[in-house]
Design a protein that fits this description.
By secondary structure, the chain is of the alpha+beta class. About 15% of the residues lie in helices and about 40% in strands. The chain has two helices and eight strands; from the N terminus they run ββαββββαββ. The mean pLDDT is about 95.
Length: about 150
């Protein structure tokens, strides 16, 4: 898989979060449920101060590696001084070195295939924060940048 190494500035995101892990039988339901809730009328429209139209799937607070628990957030980037109503949360995505991959195709199947391939790679991952940036709203023909934090 091809990728480029980039330096990112800190980002502030607003969204909703849950804790899961990749071997949990309900992981897909947890993540899918977050997205369903995030796009419901009381959540996404309530976020003011959005910086762009992109939505973000964020993976952070790793208990170790991809085999351990982590926090997943369905969200979007907002201005640093944004305020959001509960149960939405604000989080800082750390500045640093990331590998940026570009994934195109059906958002569900292409992203799932990407993660399977990534887990087999010998990438020097930091496990601080990884995220998917959905650059289009067409889930059948999506363009997604996936950022993996590096050591």
């Amino acid at each position: 898989m091809e990728y480029e190494i980039i330096e990112l500035d800190e980002k502030t995101v607003a969204g909703i979060a849950a804790r899961t892990n990749n071997s949990s039988p309900d992981m897909t339901a947890v993540i899918g449920g977050l997205w369903s809730t995030f796009f419901s009328p009381g959540f996404f429209p309530a976020i003011t101060g959005r910086k762009n139209a992109f939505t973000l799937g964020i993976y952070t607070d790793y208990a170790g590696t991809e085999k351990d628990d982590y926090t997943v957030i369905a969200g979007c980037e907002v201005q640093a001084e944004a305020a959001v109503p509960a149960p939405l949360i604000l989080r800082k995505l750390p500045a640093g070195k990331y590998a940026r991959f570009t994934v195109r195709g059906n958002a569900h199947t292409a992203v799932a295939a990407f993660w399977q391939e990534l887990w087999a790679m010998k990438l020097p991952r930091a496990f601080t924060c990884d995220f998917e940036e959905y650059r289009t709203s067409d889930m059948e023909h999506a363009e997604i940048f996936i950022y993996i934090s590096l050591l």
